[in-house]
Structures are given as C-alpha cells and as structure tokens.
Amino acid sequence: MREPCSDHARRFRAAVGAVCRSPRFQFLAATLAATVIFFARAPVAFMAPLLFAEDRAWTTQLVTRGFWETAFHAREDYCILGNAIVVWLGMQACEWFCGGDVFELPRCLALVSYLVMGAAVSLPVLLLRRQLRPVYLLAAWLLACFLPLGIHSASWSGFEILGRAINLGYVFLFIAFVLIWHRIANVTTASQAVPVDLGLLVCTATNPLCIAMLPATVWPYRGRLFATRASRSLLLRDPVFASLCVLAVGCLVVNGVPEPRGHEPEMPAASVGFDAAVEMGVARSLLYPLVWPIYHRLGTVSTLSIAALAAWCLWRFGHPRHRLVVAGGLATVGMVSIVLITCRPEVGILLDGYRSTFPDRYFYGQNLVVTLVAVVFAADVAERLRDRPRMAWLPAAALIGLALAAAVREPAWPVADSQFLLAGDDCFESGARRALHGRQFVDAARNPDPRGPFVEVTVQAGCEKSLLLPRESVVRSLAMRQSPRDAAIRTAATPAHVR
Amino acid sequence: MTTTVNETGMPDSPPSALHVFVAWLVCLAGLGLATFAAFRTVEALARPAFERQRSIAASEATGRRPGVGLGADEAIARIGAFLWPIELADGVVIRQEFDVHRDGLAGLRLRTVTWHETPAAHAIRWSLQELSGSQWQDRTVVRSGMLDPTAAADWGYAEIRFDPIPATAGGRYALKIVAADGRPARAMGLPLFEALEPHEPPLVRSGSADEGIGDGSAEPPPAGVRPIPANTVLDVRLIHAAGGS
C-alpha cells in the first residue's frame, strides 16, 4: 500500500531536483554568487556611502529631469539607457527596501550594480547551455568573476568598476556578444527572439560599440537574403527575422548616429605609435586575461609572437563549428581596440609600456569576450582529446586554475592603494544637514530658489560637485533617522571649563 | 514516454504544480538566505580591514597617526617649531579652521602659555562654527562658551568640553576665540607653531572684540598684531566622544 506522506516527499524531492537543474534557477544562483564575489572584491562602493563621479550626476539628472531624458540625453554623444536603468533600480530599491531614506541610496545603487554585473557574467549559464558543457560554463563564469582589474597597476581600479553604475556600460559589450551568439545558435521562435532583441536594444542604447555588432545577427539569414525573391518574402514572414528588423529600426530611432567624442580635457592630445597600438589592441585588450601572470614581461615582439601562436592554435585546434564565434569575438575586440586607439590615444600613455594596466575600465568588456572565446577554444581542445580521458580534463582545469590564481592574486580590499582617497567620504548625511541648514534650495536647473523642490548637497568634503535630491526626501530621511543633532544645535552653549 | 516506478512497484506520479511551486519557494528562500549570509560574512570580514585601511589612507593625507583610539585626541595638524605666542587681551580675535574626520566631536584642547604666571581673570569667549558651502563660506555657530584663563597652565592645555556633535566626519569647523577689551595684569596666550603640513593659518585681528573675523586671509594685518605667515597653526587637538566613528 502506498504511503501518502512518502509519496509527497518523493514528489517534492523530485520537484526540488528539477528546480535546481532548471537553467533559470542556476542562472539566479550564479548571479547571486557573482554578486557576493564582486562585493567581496570591491566592498568600498557599499561601505563608503559615496555617489561616485557620474553616479552622482546621473542620480541628479534622474531626480530633476526624469528617466527618459537622462537615458537618452544625459550625454551628447551616446545614450546611457543601461546605466540609467541601473541608477533607477537603485533608487527604487532605496524606496522599497529602505523606506526612501536617501542616505541609503549609495548602498542601494552599489548593490544593484553588483547584481547587474553578476547577472551579466552569469548570462552564459542561462543562454549558452547547449553550446558549452557545464564545466566550461563554470570556467567561463569563474574567469569573468575573477577577471583581474588593476593588479598590474600602481592603483587597483576594481573599485571604480565594481559596485558603480558609471562604468557598467562596458559590460554591455559582453552582454551583446552573448545575446548575439544565443540568438544565432538557439533562437527559433518569436517568444524567444523578442526578449533577446529587447536586450540587444538596451545594449546598443548603452554602449554604442554594440551597434557595430548587430550585423552579425543577420548571419543565419545570409543565404535566404541573397537568394530568390520568394525566399526573401518568406523570410519577411519569419517572426524571428521580423523581430530583428524591428530591433534595427528601434536601434536607429533610439541611437540615431553616434558622434565621436573629443579628447579628455585634462589629457593632452596624443597619437599612438605602433608599439603602443600593439600594447593597447593586442596585449591589453586581447591577451591580458590569459597572459596576466607574465604581462609585465611582454613587449611588442613577444606580444605579436604570442598573438600569432594563439591565432594558429585557434585555427589548428578549434572546431570549425565554433569558428564563427571565435571570429566574432576577435572582431569585437578588434573593433573596440581600433576605436580606443583612434579616440582614446591617451590611454596608450597611461599603459606606460606594459608597466600598468590602468585604466582597466576601458578594457574589461573586451576582456570578458576574450575569456569566453578562450573557453570555447578549451572546449574544442577537450573534444579533440576525448579519446584520451587522462588529458581531456586539462583545458578546463587550466582555465579554472587561471581564474583561481587571479582570485588569489587579488589584493585584499586595497582601499589605501586606490588612487582615490576615501577619507571624509562619509559626510553624505552631514552634508545634507548642512545643505538644509544653509537653505541650499534650488530648482531643477540648479538656480538658487528658496522655494525650490531640490536641495543641493555636497557629498564629499572639498568637492565642488554636488548632488541634487528632492527636498522632501531629504527632510523625511533626516526625520527618519531621528538624530539628536538639531536639538543639540538649539541647546548651543554648554558651560565651558578650563582645566 | 516511460513511466518510472518506485520501490513498491507502483508507478511514480510526477510532481504536481503545488509541489513545483513549493519547491521553487524553498529553493529561492534557501538561495536568498545563503546569499544574505555570504554577503553579511564578507561585510563582517571586510569592515575592520576597510576601516583600518581608510584610517591609514586618511593619515597619509593628513600626516596624522593612524588608528587613533576612540576617546583619544588628535591634532588638527602636525606642528613643528614654536614661533611666537598670541596674547589673549585687548579684544584680540583669533579664528582657526580645521577639518574633522570622525563623528562625535566632543571637545577641543588648546595649548596655552602663561609666561610662568597664573593669568588674571579676563573674559574670553569661544565659539565653534560649522562651515558649509562649496567654499566653506557659510558659518553656523554650533557650540559656544567662555574660557577661564585663571586655570590655564604654562605650556599646558585648556580643555573645552561640550555636548558631542554627532555627525562631524567630513566637516570643516572653525574655532573662534574673542578676548575682551582691556589688558589683564597677567595674560594668557596661545602659542603659534609652524605647520609641518599644508594648513590654513589662524586669522588674527585685534581691537574690536565684538567684530567677527573677516571673510578671508586677504585682510590686511591689523595694527599691533604681527602678520601671521602661511603654514602656521595653533596647537588644537580634537576630542571625540567614545562611540564616534
């Protein structure tokens, strides 16, 4: 006779097993684990309640000008839709989980930024399961989580990337690469295509270099596009292709034509010589995630030699079915490198002849793409070695070992080594008190206005740049904190004594 | 489609929608709890290291000794050679600005000189101003009181205690001292020192005790008061309440 309880328990265990094996749950678990790893790597963003650089400016713009205006007009040269979504989510998290206490906004923004970065590096776990075996998905995830960010610089710069909305734009390059690969390889229905294309639209409206990657999505249709008229008309009725067309139109509507940026005002205009171009485009952008243990020893000749050797290995040992992915990855890195060399020549000066990797923010997006290409290649090599079981595990082990070595090499919470001194960064609340006390009220255009709906808060001692926050929110947040400070000011003088 | 059987030989029924729903809830709750615990653990481990490194970073910027314990005092700047004393008499007004890096400012200690004598009674007012604005141009008096010169010791410290100010970290303050008009028989003074790090010198003027110090160091030095050179500072130490961070 069957026992109902044990039957229920068995069915429940089976359901739990199914949940744990489901791609969505594994993606969620990988995202949260990556979030914790990024927090562990750079806790500064969460611990020092400081709205960093453009995080402050974009928060001000979201508060004063609204979401869409910020997303599409915060910068003159390109949109920042993804960054604006992150800042907006941070503000909503502050509202939902912290009761609208504006002084918790930097922490909420940091958490959302860690989470978005975690989701980005975990995307292959969700979308590339058919392309990569679990151990290679794990290797890709570990390599992305522990990608070195400034261990070869005088200043470790992970803290200006991890937990900040400002530098998340570069990760959209990696997201776009994964989405395009997934779209080409796996998407067959409109319900699968629409979310992917929406994701690609966000990528292009955040990082303009993603626009140049979009033509790759047409690859599966190349045969039918250039065949007979009948095949073309059939193609137009394909909902997946129709979604792609809508994406292309949406991309044009949203982005228009990107404008080139000028030089950084504080940096001298510079031209990049051959050696510096090799350093920027090949050593730092392409090889660094794999050769970081010997990066300081590289030079132009050794870099080109290693690159040539890697290209030969990719061609010789890579599986032909993955050549498109590898070529796409290399083309992405090449495109970004060309843009960097032509539009950001000053970065070549900062790299200083293989002595530094700073500024790492310009390179981590393409480095993530390279790690994925390296994982694909390792999977191909393992496939070739499948007849030798003792050797077949070596490629995965090598990549996982490289990721763990990077984790070990990572300096532990290197606040003092960072180029930004964080002393005095915790004056957000006191700055708001001073601003209220000093009646620093302004309107949305920052004009002083005693009845203005915003209060101009100095968030860092001695820094002239300020943050605009809704006056009501600041008043409410201060009241929530119930600090005795105002009362103390009113009581003013206490009898002084001299020893 | 194959049907699995359990150990009793009966066919296994697949999990119902309720089973799946509860399984998702349990798995998500477990994942959330594990993430929360991991996050809090990392935070607990990182916090002391973070505070220690930040203290080191702050000390490198200010030249002060890192890791000053709670309740201990710290100088507003490293001082070098003694230059000359400023006598607190004849309506002299002294204003010394300084930065505060920690919360809970609860007092100040002022190095005094008395010329080997016990100073005579003389009215000396002090006030602590909180500075704000992008150029620190706005001032708010947050604490004030009187100094008693008769208790001052030669090369000792006059201690000013007040209700702790909770949120002082990152703030800029000014200590203003105003001596009454007239000249006591034995005056108390504040020694001026060379500053061993860049620091705002004190502003000093004499003759009109009720007037505040002007808006900047561009003021011409008043008659009777020696011009205060740049990179000089009074020996002022900050007292923080235990529990201030």
What does this structure look like?
The complex is a heterodimer of chains A (499) and B (245). In chain A, 48% of the residues are buried. Chain A is built from 23 helices and 3 strands. By secondary structure, chain A is mainly α. Chain B contains 1 helix and 12 strands, in the order αββββββββββββ. By secondary structure, chain B is of the alpha+beta class.
Question: Secondary-structure blueprint of this entry?
Answer:
The complex is a heterodimer of chains A (499) and B (245).
Chain A: H1 4-21, H2 23-41, H3 44-47, H4 54-65, H5 67-73, H6 81-97, H7 105-127, H8 134-145, H9 171-186, H10 190-204, H11 222-225, H12 229-236, H13 239-255, H14 274-291, H15 300-317, H16 323-343, H17 346-351, H18 364-384, H19 389-392, H20 394-409, H21 428-437, E1 441-442, E2 454-458, E3 466-470, H22 471-481, H23 485-491
Antiparallel strand pairs in A: 1-2, 2-3
Helix pairs in contact in A: 2-7, 4-5, 4-6, 5-6, 6-7, 7-8, 7-9, 8-18, 8-20, 9-10, 9-18, 10-13, 14-15, 14-16, 14-18, 16-18, 18-20, 21-22
Chain B: H1 17-62, E1 73-75, E2 79-87, E3 93-100, E4 105-111, E5 124-132, E6 138-147, E7 157-165, E8 171-179, E9 189-195, E10 203-205, E11 232-234, E12 236-240
Antiparallel strand pairs in B: 1-12, 2-9, 3-8, 3-10, 4-7, 4-12, 5-6, 5-8, 9-11
